[in-house]
Amino acid sequence: MKIARKRDFPVHQVRRFLEPGPVVLVSSAHDGQRDIMTMGWHMVMEFSPSLLACVIASGNRSFELVRASRQCVINLPTEPLLDTVVRIGNCSGDEVDKFDAFGLTAQPATHVDAPLIAQCHASFECRLHDDALVERYNLFVWEVVKAHVAPTPKNPRTVHYRGEGQFMVSGNERSRRRLFKPEML
Ligand SMILES: Cc1cc2nc3c(=O)[nH]c(=O)nc-3n(C[C@H](O)[C@H](O)[C@H](O)COP(=O)(O)O)c2cc1C
Fold this sequence. Notes:
The protein has helices spanning 15-18, 61-69, 82-88, 98-101, 134-137, and strands at residues 24-30, 33-39, 42-46, 51-55, 71-76, 106-107, 116-117, 122-130, 139-149, 159-163, 166-169. With 185 residues, the protein is α+β, with helices and mostly antiparallel strands.
């Protein structure tokens, strides 16, 4: 196998390679207010219960809404929504209602007050599982309590942020199922 000839690289830019993606839209609601933010910094923590973690900067309006309500919906946008995803991540809900501003449809969720975004391929209703690291790192640990997923397309073209305004769109599926132990699938 070919050896990669690596060079020194600024540590503050390693996120370009490691940001997990896909980029998601976090919808939240509290006290008659609602908002949407774009998010790249999230990770899966556990299958069952279904736990996710994410970092939400405290300056974001969404931070206040999710902290107060202890709920959110994590929505999965696909390629046709890319411009909207970027625009949502470049304005504040203090200035606009992002559902109205970007022509997105809010649908009622089953277990949380935050709305689902109808145009997204999937929406995961989340309740706050652990806030121990919110003060220190703005890190919220969520339990997904309900998942809504469109049956098609089977492999949605999700968008993944590389930094510097560059995105990668998922595609080029390859199966390596045969290399997995059954319990690792
Ligand atoms: C591609 C992309 C990824 C982002 N990822 C995050 C993130 O993981 N955490 C975060 O706090 N802000 C992230 N942001 C910035 C927020 O989406 C942005 O600050 C947004 O305007 C906050 O909206 P709000 O003030 O209405 O909550 C991201 C923005 C973009 C464009």
